[in-house]
């Protein structure tokens, strides 16, 4: 479904990504982890066609993403950037409705079908009571739900998320990831998400990619990537790995050296 083939990215002299190759199958959730500055956001921007790689290519259903029109990409992919939604005095309803634009022709206004879709998704994401509230008056957790709702009405095949749980408390972090997880399971959505929390990444991803200084350090299942020696090498810390008592996913406990 999605192929990243020998992608390299340089910003003038600076080599930010080098020879990144992997494939993502339809319906899977891939977690991208790695230290700050390892190139995660840059990789996500290249996958979404926002940045052009220095060499290599990203293909979606065998087509180079850079050869597709913006609107065609928007029908295939929804992106939640690291910056989140801008703080503007626009209502929640209108913000989510914007997610329908890839499906509305330039000479059309939104149709009854689009309005229904927005209402369904507002209910599904538990924010219908906020629909008339302005975006710049929402809490962080509410705003992230609006961002997910906007992506949902876009009806993409692929969802790209860049650190969607930053600044949220643990309850709201789980809330957002559960929402994405249900959506993935219900519709066969393909998810690529950057998460800085390794424990959450291990719990919600089918596969993990560990980036370090612009290269893929490890790629594989949670057990293959969440290993003491690998994390010690990459993060220069001494983690203890334990199995989660409930779902037997590897989890990390931090200790000082
Ligand atoms: P991460 O998301 O893993 O923290 P980024 O992809 O944001 O990392 O950044 C990786 C490296 O690329 C950083 O050193 C950053 O300074 C650099 N970088 C990112 N964007 C640009 C840019 N537009 N111009 C120059 N350097 C950039
Ligand atoms: Mg980043």
UniProtKB/TrEMBL annotation:
Query: Where does the ABC transporter domain start and stop, copy by copy?
Result: 2-238
Q: Which UniProt keywords apply?
A: ATP-binding, Nucleotide-binding, Transport
Q: Name one GO molecular function term.
A: ATP binding
Q: Where are the transmembrane segments?
A: none
| Lineage top rank: taxon | Bacteria
Name of the protein: Iron complex transport system ATP-binding protein
Q: Which organism is it from?
A: Salinibacillus kushneri
Q: What is the lineage of its organism?
A: Bacteria, Bacillati, Bacillota, Bacilli, Bacillales
């Amino acid at each position: 479904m999605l192929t990243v083939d020998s992608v390299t990215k340089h910003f003038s002299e600076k080599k930010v990504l080098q020879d990144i190759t992997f494939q993502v199958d339809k319906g899977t959730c891939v977690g991208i982890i790695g230290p700050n500055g390892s190139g995660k956001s840059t990789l996500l921007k290249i996958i979404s066609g926002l940045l052009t790689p220095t060499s290599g290519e990203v293909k979606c259903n065998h087509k180079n993403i850079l050869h597709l029109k913006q609107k065609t990409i928007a029908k295939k992919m929804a992106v939640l950037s690291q910056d989140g939604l801008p703080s503007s005095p626009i209502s929640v309803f209108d913000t989510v409705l914007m997610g329908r634009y890839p499906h509305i022709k330039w000479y059309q206004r939104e149709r009854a079908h689009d309005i229904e879709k927005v209402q369904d998704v507002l209910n599904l994401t538990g924010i219908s009571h906020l629909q008339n509230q302005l975006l710049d008056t929402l809490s962080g957790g509410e705003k992230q739900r609006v961002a997910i709702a906007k992506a949902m009405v876009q009806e993409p095949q692929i969802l790209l998320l860049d650190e969607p749980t930053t600044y949220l408390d643990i309850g709201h972090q789980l809330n957002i990831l559960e929402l994405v997880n249900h959506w993935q399971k219900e519709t066969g959505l393909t998810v690529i998400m950057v998460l800085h929390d390794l424990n959450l990444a291990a719990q919600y991803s089918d596969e993990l990619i560990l980036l370090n200084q612009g290269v893929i350090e490890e790629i594989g299942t949670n057990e293959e990537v969440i290993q003491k020696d690998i994390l010690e090498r990459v993060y220069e810390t001494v983690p203890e790995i334990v199995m989660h008592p409930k779902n037997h996913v590897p989890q990390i406990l931090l200790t000082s050296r």
